[in-house]
Amino acid sequence: MVAMLALMLAGCQTTKDSTGTGAANSASYEALMRLADTTRGQGDLYTAATLYRRAHAANGARVEPLLGLGDVLIDQGTPREALDIWRQALALDSGSAAALRGYGRALLALDQPEEAARQYAAVLASDPKDRRALNGLGVSKDMMGDHNGAQERFRAALALAPDDRTTLNNLGFSHLLAGNAAEAIRILEPLGRAPTASALQRQNLALAYGLAGRDEDAARMGRLDLGEAEVQRNLLYYRQAREGAGDTPAAAPRPQVLVAPAKK
User: Which of 52, 59, 201, 244 could form a disulfide with 197 if both were Cys (CB 3.0 to 4.6 A apart)?
Assistant: First the structure.
């Protein structure tokens, strides 16, 4: 992939220098975007970020490279840098639902749920059935302590996509935050026990088991992703949490924010 990137960047530079035509620049932009999307899908975030930046340099009037770059930066754990990219995207297209959702996602990562909620609400004002915005608004409300409001948004998103695992995870997690471990288990158990379950979904279920007093089930689920020391630390946390005290568990469960490919 590194060799391919070097060839692609060299080819783009040569084309620009030798022709300088709008058609050549357009071809270079399209090729860069295709390769950026491919490398992002393969998990090569560093290369994808470089390619999205090159695509933006090739055509600064298009918002798509910024959308892709913003999501990559969030996935790399640099939400402050992503926030600046989303601002640039919104400067190009203030009504872009993808840019508003991305801006909200960065704000959530920076623990600014009130401001994030405003971004998701702006999307929903134009499209009340945008399930990614409904999900993001639900996460925002959970972070603000409004669990009933969060669950209302998650259920609205599930009415549009009943089997969406991310939204189901968030609904279950919201019930955990609201102190309803039994309902959380009902929702999370099919997710966490599925062969396709993510570590996050399994550990959310472990947390639900632990808060419900099912320590053996919690330990069994925890060991699927954690070492024994972490499992024991979590069991201690679960016991303390049931008594009204406790530190953060070793694998801190959390909600998820739906993300769509930048080009969509």
Answer: 201
Domains recognised in the chain with CATH numbers? 1-13+23-62 (no CATH), 163-264 (1.25.40.10)
Amino acid at the residue 170 = N
50: its two tokens: 């470089």
* 25, 122, 124, 178 from 136: Cα distances, Å: 36, 12, 11, 18
Phi-psi region of 100 (alpha: psi -120 to 50; beta: other; left: phi over 0): alpha
CA distances from 234 to 95, 130, 186, 191, 205 (A): 44, 36, 21, 20, 13
**Nearest residue to 200 via CA among 219, 177, 173:** 173
